[in-house]
Design a protein that fits this description.
Number of domains: 1
Radius of gyration: 21 Å
Largest sheet: none
Order of helices and strands: HHHHHHHHHHHHHHH
Length: 319
């Protein structure tokens, strides 16, 4: 399908518009038109499918499954559940409090908080479309590993005392919540969610692809390789440090990752940059600061940052 679309863009840019294939302007315009439509198609299809599957499995069910689970087993389940449940900075507090009220240990809760933004459907959709299923599978696997080990480490430190507000546990066990919807209702809800997500991120996609198109056409490959393509020890930590304060999401940064890796940046360094943006969001930290002590947030960020750097080094070594 995308081969046919690429031929259409070739005809549009190099035929109708009369642009030169070897020119920076022609190359940038081709990249912008082709990638923008390709990314939007991928987002619509994959977000809709994931949203439809999600109607069978909501966060209340997650709490039911995680309640009473032992450590590490709970960390693994929480990380896996993070892939199929929605998460954004605005939902951090209610999710955190809900898990604590259900008497789910702090470490298991953090495994979920790490996995959900890092392995969100937008990142998975774009990775699959831009880099293929093998890179996507590796990314998901290493993302889960960071979430499991990070949450387990937080749990072992006994940092419950750094939760700043009292959390009253729910009495008794949670009941399994059944969602009874027709196929039509599930489809409608999934489409509404997909539309809502696209409405929120379409501008990020345009900006990300626009910047990527400029780099693709105008920034020499030698420049990228010289400043960001080396396998020096500090390239991965520097990428993580740069990613933390950025207020963006996978939709905005993924087109840049595609271009930077195409220009010579090592994939592990590029993915560490993206993972830092999605899993170590500074806005999320500011929201969590309302209920967590700075020491706990710093510990959480430090553990996850080390995990992301480890993933970056590993990708750079094996690919």
């Amino acid at each position: 399908m995308f081969n046919l679309w690429e031929k259409c863009v070739d005809y549009l840019v190099y035929g109708l518009f009369g642009m030169d294939k070897d020119s920076a302007m022609g190359s940038s315009l081709h990249f912008f038109i082709f990638d923008t439509i390709k990314i939007y198609i991928l987002l619509v299809v994959i977000i809709f499918v994931v949203s439809f599957l999600r109607t069978y499995f909501n966060t209340d069910k997650v709490r039911v499954y995680l309640q009473g689970k032992s450590e590490f087993t709970g960390n693994i389940l929480a990380a896996l559940f993070g892939i199929i449940t929605p998460f954004c900075s605005c939902s951090a507090i209610p999710l955190f409090l809900g898990f604590m009220q259900a008497r789910i240990p702090l470490g298991i809760t953090f495994s979920f908080l790490i996995s959900s933004p890092m392995n969100n459907e937008i990142a998975i959709a774009l990775l699959f479309g831009l880099f293929g299923w093998k890179i996507t599978a590796l990314y998901i696997g290493f993302g889960l590993l960071v979430a499991i080990i990070g949450g387990f480490a937080v749990g072992k430190m006994g940092m419950e005392k750094y939760v700043l507000i009292p959390v009253v546990p729910m009495s008794g066990d949670l009941d399994n919540v059944e969602i009874k919807l027709t196929f039509k209702q599930r489809s409608k809800d999934s489409w509404n969610y997909t539309y809502d997500i696209l409405e929120k991120i379409y501008l990020y996609v345009l900006i990300g692809v626009g910047i990527g198109a400029f780099i693709h056409g105008y920034v020499p490959t030698d420049f990228i390789v010289h400043y960001a393509g080396s396998n020096t020890w500090y390239s991965v930590p520097l990428a993580v440090i740069m990613g933390v304060p950025m207020y963006s999401n996978a939709a905005g940064v993924m087109p840049l990752i595609e271009v930077l890796t195409g220009k010579g940046m090592l994939l592990g360094t590029a993915l560490s940059f993206m993972m830092a943006i999605t899993a170590l969001s500074l806005p999320e930290a500011m929201i969590l600061k309302r209920i967590l002590h700075v020491r706990l947030i710093t510990t959480f960020f430090g553990i996850v940052a080390l995990g992301i750097m480890g993933v970056g080094y590993l990708f750079n070594t094996i690919l």
